[in-house]
Sequence to fold (128 residues):
Amino acid sequence: VQLQASGGGLVQTGGSLTLSCAASGFSMDYYTIGWFRQAPGMEREGVSCIGNSGSSTYYTGSVRGRFTISRDNAKNTVYLQMNSLKPEDTAVYYCAADPDLDTVVGAINGRRRYLEVWGQGTLVTVSS
Fold:
């Protein structure tokens, strides 16, 4: 059971990146997927999540309108399209999975929640 985040890199302010979160060893069909990030010296913060069917999405205020989360269950992959990137978006981005949407939304909102599966991160660096 594994999640693998990829797609990070170096981009200039105002640029775009698309992150991918691929699952192996289990089907994403029954899981809500969340994206989190941790900047150097900062605590981890929630970014966005998407329910198992894709019909429910949630974004933290700082990325709303700039980031778009989507999923392709046939490919067992969730995507995070990031536009209009800012230096403050620089962080290691992680994806996580849990069967319960409310649990993931709570974690995105900073509440202490146990999420079932975590992936390794991918580094996004936005230069000014």
